[in-house]
Amino acid sequence: MEGNEEKSGFEEETYDAEAAEEVRLSAADRERIERLFGLAVADRSKAFELKQELDRLGVFKDYEDRFLDLFKKVG
């Protein structure tokens, strides 16, 4: 029956966390998050402020890996 299957013309969509957060966040929110990531890279004490902002916006899960990477030891 494989030969009789028709394609629907729709491709299966996969969940893209980054694309999903872009839909929920305004440009100003994304810019603020990026600024806070930059500050947290230079000064780990800013990570708390970043975490609060991600939680407030409800997007921590979308940024969790990137956030945790701030604390990885290099070398």
Write a short abstract of this structure:
The protein is an all-alpha fold. The protein has helices at residues 17-24, 27-42, 47-57, 60-69. The protein is globular, with a radius of gyration of 18 Å.
- Count of helix runs: 4
Order of helices and strands: HHHH
N→C terminal distance: 55 Å
Extended strand count: 0
Oligomer: single chain
Shape: globular
Strand content: under 5%
The mean pLDDT is: 81
Q: Rounded to an integer, what's the Rg over CA atoms?
A: 18 Å
> Which structural class should the secondary elements be placed in?
mainly alpha
Q: What does this protein structure show overall?
A:
With 75 residues, the protein is an all-alpha fold. It has a domain at 18-69. It has 4 helices and no strands. The chain has helices at 17-24, 27-42, 47-57, 60-69. Helix 2 runs antiparallel to helix 3 (47-57). The longest helix is centred in the middle third of the chain and has 16 residues, at 27-42. The protein is globular, with a radius of gyration of 18 Å. 8% of the residues are buried.
Give a topology summary.
Elements: H1 17-24, H2 27-42, H3 47-57, H4 60-69
Give keywords.
75 residues, mainly alpha, 60% helix, globular
